[in-house]
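Bug #77: duplicate submission created two jobs. Keeping one. Sequence:
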Amino acid sequence: MLTSILGYASLAMKKLPASSDVRKDLYMVISGARQAVDLTSEMLVYAGKGAIEFESVDIARVVDNMSSMINSIVPRKIRLVQKVTGDLPRLKGDQVQLGQVLMNLVANAIDALDQEAGTIQITTGLTEVDAAGLRQSFFASEAEVGAYLYLSVKDSGSGMDAVQVSKIFDPFYSEKGVSKGLGLSSISGIVRQHGGFAHVESSLGEGSEFTVYFPALSYSEVLSKQGSQFRSSSQNKGKILLADDDPRIRSLIHSILESAHFELTSTEDGKEAMKMVAENGPNDVLFLLDCTTPKMSGTEVYRQIRAQGLTTPVILISGYHQEQVISNINNDPNAHFIKKPFNVDELLDQVDRALSEQILTS
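Kept job's structure:
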C-alpha cells in the first residue's frame, strides 16, 4: 500500500509545474508516507521480521526527517536549537535505527529538564577522534583513531556526577532512581552495529551532552554508477517483463517505465512469467520480479531464468525478505534488489544501474 502511495504521489509531483500550489500538498503526502515507512520498518524489526538495512546515509537528512516528530514531543517551555552541518561525508547505516537513536537522546534530554524551562541543542558535524578521546568514550574498545561523523544532543538540565555518568547506559538505570525501562541502553546495540561509540560530558548543575560517533565514508565509497545514458535517451530502450500480483503496483511501474521509453509486458503470477520468458525472454532487456508472486515466487522465477542460461539483468522486489533475497543473489553481478516502498527516482535509478552495469557471461 505504501508503495502505491509513495509511487503515485511522486509521479504526480513530477507532472506538475514547479509553480503549482498542489506540490506542497503532495510533499506532505510523501512526507507522511515516509514516516509510515519508518514506523513499519521499526515494527518489522521489533517483530523479528525485518533486517537492519545498511546504506549510504546523510546524517543531516536523518535529523531533518525526524524534526516533525521531535517537535511534537518537546514541551513548549523548552527551546529546541538545531545546528546541523550540511555537505558532510556520509556514513554506512540504517536511517530508521539512527532516527531511533536521535529520538532516544532527545527524550532523555527532555527527562533531564524535568518539566522545567531550558534548552535542547542538536548538533551534527565531522571531527577527528584521537586515542585519548576513544579512552574516554563508551563502546570504543574496537574503534580506531580517525575521522568520525557525530550527532550530539545537549541539554541545560541538572547534570550528573561521574558515578551517574558511568552507569548511564546500564539497562534499567535512571539518574532519578526510578527505572522506566531500558533507557539509553537501548541505543548501545545500534551504535555498536554501526561501528560507532558514545561520549558523555556532564557535571552537576551544568547540564549534559551526549554525542554518538560513526565512521565517515570516503566520498569514493559513496559514489556509484547512475546509468545516465539510459535515463537521458528518448528512444525505445527495449522490453521489460514485469511480474507482480498487485494491480496497483503493476500500473504504477507501467506508468513510470513507459514514460521512460521502455516497453512493458506484465503478469500477476510466476508461472505465467516463466511462459513469457520461454516465448520472448531473450528479447527482454530486463526482468522485474516481485518475490511473492503466486503459483511461483519471483525468486524461483529468477532461479529458472538463470538455469536456462539467460544472463539478462534481473531486479527482485520485496518489502519483507530483503536480507534473504540479497544473500541469494550476492554472487550474481546481473541480479539486483529494490525494497518496497520505492518512489519514481529510486526505481529508475535501479533500472538504469542494472542495465548500465550488465556483465555478459558465456
